[in-house]
Specification:
mainly beta, 14-stranded mixed sheet, two-stranded antiparallel ribbon
Length: about 210
């Protein structure tokens, strides 16, 4: 296999499924297809000798059916602050290279893509508070996104639920909320009040780090 790598950071992802997202339980997507917008901040990370601390990445994805059926489209967005080596490292990680097949969500999603657009290097304004279930992601010309807690329809009180996955390829535990995402560029999406996940990521070329 290729270069060893690891990242430890935080993620907010918003897709077009209902709050529970059947895909997290090996079910079919709520509306039959999948659309998603994801932001990640790497607190600590490396790819070989290249440090990735403090960098951000984002992605816009679209599949005509369930993810595992393929024919997806994807746009990778990389922090403009990254130097050439860091850009190459992040794109290799995001495209599933230097990774055991199926070990991370990057590798899994990349294997379902039939159209990948040229990567974008841009300012990524991203912040996520996992316990509070709040996030925002802004990439000029490409993404306007926010994440919030689910609110009880009767009491108006914030509702808290988590997904605990054993043997997954993305996270161990995700706080569940809701999100809004509007995108422009080659993949145009408009997601409103749909599934949102707030989670810690600790991944390497072999999958989740325990």
């Amino acid at each position: 296999m290729g270069v060893q790598w690891a990242i430890h950071g935080r993620e907010f992802g918003n897709c077009n499924c209902s709050y529970g997202c059947p895909c997290q339980f090996n079910g079919l997507p709520t509306h039959g297809n999948c659309q998603a917008v994801v932001g990640i901040e790497i607190d600590h990370g490396f790819h070989g000798d290249t440090k990735l601390d403090g960098l951000r990445i984002a992605g816009i994805f679209k599949w005509p059916g369930p993810v595992h059926m393929g024919n997806g489209e994807g746009l990778a967005i990389v922090d403009h602050r990254a130097n050439d080596a860091q850009r190459d490292a992040l794109l290799r990680i995001m495209s599933g290279q230097d990774t055991t097949p199926g070990a991370t969500m990057f590798a899994v999603f990349a294997s379902t893509m039939t159209k990948g657009y040229d990567p974008v290097f841009a300012d990524i304004d991203f912040a996520v508070d996992i316990p509070k279930r709040r996030a925002h992601l802004k990439v000029p010309g490409y993404i306007e996104q926010r994440g919030e807690p689910i609110v009880n329809a009767v009491t108006g009180i914030e509702s808290r639920a988590r997904i605990d996955i054993v043997g997954g390829f993305e996270y161990k535990i995700a706080e569940i909320g809701r999100g809004w995402s509007k995108t422009d560029g080659p993949i145009k999406l408009d997601l409103a009040d749909s599934y949102g996940q707030f989670c810690e990521l600790h991944l390497s070329q072999d999958g989740i780090i325990n």
